[in-house]
Here is the input.
Amino acid sequence: QVQLVESGGGLVQTGGSLRLSCAASGRTVSNYFMAWFRQAPGKEREFVADINWTGVNTAYADSVKGRFTISSDNAKNLVYLQMSSLKPEDTAVYYCATRGIGATRYNYWGQGTQVTVSS
Here is the structure.
C-alpha cells in the first residue's frame, strides 16, 4: 500500500513563497507519476502540477505556470512543490497523489496540507 505524507504548508503573505514536500513509501512500481492537487473551500479539487518517474517531464496548470515548480528526489522518495509569488487565490488544501503508468487516475492520496495566503 502506497502512503503519501505532505508537509510544509502554512500561512504566508501575498507575494511570499512556500515549499511543500511529499514523502512516498510502499511503492511497488518503478514507472509512475507524482502530482499535486489543491482544493479551495467550496470548490472542486483541481490539478496543480505533475512529474514523471524520471523527474524530467513536468506539467502545470495555467494558473501556476511560472510561479510553481515541481521537482523530485527519487533517492529519498520525495516530491516538492516550490511555490513563489503566492496569491490569495492559491489558498487551499494541497494534496500529493501518485499513480502507476498504467493507471488512468491518481489512486493514492495524502492527507493534505493547508496553505493560506493572506492579502
